[in-house]
Amino acid sequence: MTARKGRRAAAEQGGGAAPRRVVFIGAAGEMCRVAIERFAKADGDGELVLTDIRPEILEPLAKRLPAGRATIRRLDLFDQKDLRAAIDGAALVVLGAGPYIRTSSPVIEACLEAKVPYLDFDDDVESTEHALSLHEKAKAAGIPIYVGCGASPGMSNVLVADAAAELDTVENIEVGWLVGDERPDVGRAVLHHLMHISAGPCLTWENGGPATHESYVETGIVQMGGIGEVLLYETAHPEPVTLPRRYPEAKRIRCIGGLAPAPFNGIARGLGLAVHEGKLTADEAVDFILDILKNRYFTNAKALRYALGGMLGQVRRKESGAGTLVEFLLKSAVRRTYRWEGGLLARVTGTRNGMPAVAVRRTPISGPETYAVRSMGALTGTACAAFMVLAIDENGTRAGAFAPEDWADPKAFYNALERVGTPRSEIVEAVL
Description:
By secondary structure, the protein is α/β, with parallel strands linked by helices. The chain contains 17 helices and 16 strands.
């Protein structure tokens, strides 16, 4: 375990203020580990308190950080007494433990009581709505609650704000995300989220007002940067819930997303429907996915049937070809994976100078050789680190509950991405 003993002792002997503390909850998660390492590149001072219910996993991470920067602590975030002791006096608390529909409420409540700033990369609609409903409480406590500060939501919202600024009026907003082949390194919280968004109600914005669709039914085709044309599915994500607060005049706002290669979408849809209809539990579906990611296919025959049914449904609806499915099954059988491809896109339509206009912002490249867009974990963690830089720069000047488009200026955010190590060439490209 490492600690900033020398710097802390010097501050105490000199009578100076204690070092600024940033507390990470769920620090052992893949996305949070990336956020910690990349935030440390930009922020050269202050103590990084790494907490997790499995603190032993954090030792390698602490050793990679600059000497004396990190302290490791075991924390069960549902233990309110221990949680308060961990966050009291923090300059910022970052929640990286999901699923957020379970974890965000107790941590936000503790931050309100302790009057310390809070930031997360929540991608669940229900917990996002709850966090934003605490705006007045956060103002009274004098602290900011920054929600959805990851890739999607997060960077995607900033791309929307950047694109919309080119237009005089905003009519339609489409946010797109694509996640590539990440076998076998996928966490349970990510898969629980996937089961949550691949079936069931999808809160969206249509005809100038809120509407409810079915997740993973409607589709859209977009041109992803460096990849080309991909088919994505409408998903239950926070962007269509938060963006109407800034663009109430928009007729349509939706989030479409998907997985690559395409048959993964069929697996997600088949299992998600089974969970939504009570034919499988979410844990059964997640356990099955974790098994097939490790090339163990026959651990749950019932789940396998729903997964195959989902992929065949894709072929019947012409969302993917039979050849693509056969190739995927053959490659999976011999434990071959695909090159990772993914990224983000925001497409805004409206008018400019009285004429119809379109503005697009997207990540320009992706792949294992890139810094930030080599995996969704890398993109989410890097974006979170940039949001953290902006939050620290705010230095207590903002109070309330905020989605990214409420507070993160696009140019400042892109600069923050560079500060955490992202090459400018990977950050954003404009398509006019």
